[in-house]
Amino acid sequence: MPGFGKLLYQFIAPLFKSAPLARKRLIKAACLLHDVSWRAHPDYRAEACFDNATRANLGGLKHSERIFLGLALLHRYTNKREGTHFEDLYELIDEKTQSEAEVLGKAMRFGAMLWMDRDVDLGDLRWFPKKKQLELRLSADAMPLFGEVAEARLNSLAASLEAEVTVRKRRG
After folding, report:
1. Domain CATH for 38
2. What is the dihedral sign for C-alpha 82, 83, 86, 87?
3. 131 pLDDT higher than 70
4. How big is the chain by its Cα radius of gyration, in Å?
5. Whole-prediction pTM
6. Which of 31, 59, 86, 144 has the most CB atoms lying inside 10 A of its own CB?
7. How far apart are CA 67 and CA 53, in angstroms?
8. How many domains is the chain built from?
């Protein structure tokens, strides 16, 4: 959906407030590319995303940035990265960066399932890193969309952040 990547970026941006500008650039790129491999078979979509990000003609990216982008897009479609034939490449970035890519991917996975209409403000994320508290505030219109799959994806994101999660109904 044209323009959705920007909306997705705005939704997940609170998770990356303190990220350096170069990282925010990659985060925005991941959001813009979050669903370019939707035509790939669901069983292979995660790996297709990683492969596309690491092999595509995307100028201005270092190898480590391609791996970060690829891992984020891989985690957009799957919770785990073990068992792929790309595992040796993950070592090009450190564990912390791998974890940040995982958080980004899981945030995109969650955000993409709820925020499909850019004209409707359904809710927002708040992240309190010192307290390790993730808060989702939903409008009354969004509450019915927050079913068990959405809850599982939010909990997976919170687990990647090593955080407690709270869901609140937003006022107004």
Report:
1. 1.10.3210.10
2. positive
3. yes
4. 16
5. 0.90
6. 31
7. 8
8. 1
